[in-house]
Amino acid sequence: GMKHPDIQILKATFPEEVSFFSSVKDIQAKHINLVRYLLATIAPNGRKEREAAQIVEQIRQTGDKSQKKQLPGITPSALIAEGEGRKMTDFINDDNLQAVTDWFQVDIDLQDNKHLQGNPNLTAETIRDRLANESTYVAYSGLSCSGYGVWGLIKLEDSANHSEHFRALIEDFQQANIQLDTSKGGNLNDFRFYSYDPEAHINPNYRIYKK
């Protein structure tokens, strides 16, 4: 992974637009370039981004997850029409799903992976780095908002088979001895809270997942 990635490489790796929400309760989607958002997770710039990073650091220090409600976030898999909410039912009725991005968000929870390397002192950082170094499919991997997990982005060949790809990914990760959180990522409209990680890994040479 590249530590402080070249902007041009990042733009070429994450050119898609995704839906951005100012909080999980916001029902007015805006459009944002994925590259812009991921840069904000690595090197927050400007007042709002730095505020979000500070909230994340507070959550990690205090363990108070109720503060997540203040954080912005994206739907990595779905581009929802601007000004629309992210209820799945709206996708069908109002035609507000403009596009699928083909990005899939994977979540790995520290609690589910205590067995890794038989290591009782296992940290989320260890899992993040292992994911970045061992999986050729993971384009981005960083710490989750709580600091007790990892999230990553994988490019799917065909989002029409979103849930079938998800099942295959769960099995592939299990074979690598990593347990994915099966409650997240399965739906196109799943929300991803902003999370700060200056040590996140970017892999511009990721492979597209076809299984």
Amount of beta strand: 15-25%
Question: What structural class is derived from the secondary structure elements?
Answer: alpha+beta
Instruction: Characterize the biggest β-sheet.
Output: 4 strands, antiparallel
Poorly predicted residue ranges: none
- Overall geometry comes to globular
Give the number of helices. 6
The number of strands is 10
Overall pLDDT score? 90
What is the rounded distance between the termini? 24 Å
Elements, N to C (H/E):
HEEHHEEHEEHEEHEE
Characterize the structure shown:
The protein is an alpha+beta fold and 211 residues long. The protein has helices spanning 7-13, 34-42, 47-62, 88-93, 124-134, 162-175; strands spanning 17-21, 30-33, 73-75, 78-80, 97-100, 103-109, 138-143, 149-155, 192-193, 201-202. A four-stranded antiparallel beta sheet has the order 2-1-3-9. The chain has a four-stranded antiparallel beta sheet with strand order 6-8-7-10. The longest helix is centred in the first third of the chain and has 16 residues, at 47-62. The model has no long low-confidence stretch (mean pLDDT 90).
